[in-house]
Amino acid sequence: MLERLNSSSPLSQAIMGTLQRHLINLDMLLADLEMLDASEYGQASHAKLLRDIQKVLQAIDEVASGETVASFQKAVATTGLAKAMEDKRMPGIYNRLIGYVLQHWETSRKIDAILADQFDENADKRLDLLQVKNIKAKSQFKTVAGAMGKRDYELFVQNMGLNHPDWTWQA
C-alpha cells in the first residue's frame, strides 16, 4: 500500500515527526519509571507506567513498520534510546515482554488473594489455573528474553525497573 517514501517528502517527514513524538513520550515514561522507589516494584504505580509504556511501544511499532531500518535508527539516535531501540523490532519485543510481566504480576496477586481469604470449594481449581497461567507467562518471558541476547535483555530489565529476583537470570 505505502511505497517507500522519499525522506524529503511531506508524508515521510510527517511519519518521522510522529515517530519522534512517540520516542520522546517513551523516553519521558522511562524517566518516570527511573524515579520510582524500589519499594514500588510491582505495585500499581509501576504496573501503570508499564501499561503506558506498552501503549507507546505499540504506536512506535506501528509507525516503524513503514520506516526503513536506517530511518528508524536515525530517529532513535536523536533520543536517549539508541542502545535499547537500535533494532526496529525491539518495540514489539519489549511490548511482549512487558505483557508477560504484567500477566505474571496480575496472576500472582490473584493467587495471593485466593490463598489469603478466598479459599472455598472452587479455590483449588482457580488456584491451579492461575498457577499454570503464571508459570506460562514467566516461561514465555524467559524464552523471548533468552532470544534477545544478554546485552539487550539487561537493557530491558534496567529500563523497565525490573532489577528484581523475579526477572534476573543469565540470558
Give a structural overview.
This protein has 171 residues and is mainly alpha-helical. It has one domain. It is 70% helix and 0% strand. It has 6 helices and no strands. The chain has helices spanning 10-34, 44-64, 69-77, 90-117, 123-148, 150-159. The model is unreliable at 1-11 (pLDDT under 50).
Question: Could you provide a short overview of the structure?
Answer:
The chain has 171 residues and is mainly α. It has helices at residues 10-34, 44-64, 69-77, 90-117, 123-148, 150-159.
Question: What's the structural blueprint in terms of helices and strands?
Answer:
Blueprint: H1 10-34, H2 44-64, H3 69-77, H4 90-117, H5 123-148, H6 150-159
Helix/strand/pairing category: mainly alpha
Total of domains: 1
Overall helicity: 55-70%
Unreliable spans are 1-11
The helix-strand sequence is: HHHHHH
Number of helical regions: 6
Largest sheet: none
Mean pLDDT rating: 85
The value of Rg in angstroms is 19 Å
**C-alpha end-to-end distance:** 38 Å
Shape: elongated
Beta percentage is under 5%
- For the secondary structure, the number of strands is 0
List keywords for this structure.
171 residues; mainly alpha; 70% helix; elongated; disordered N terminus
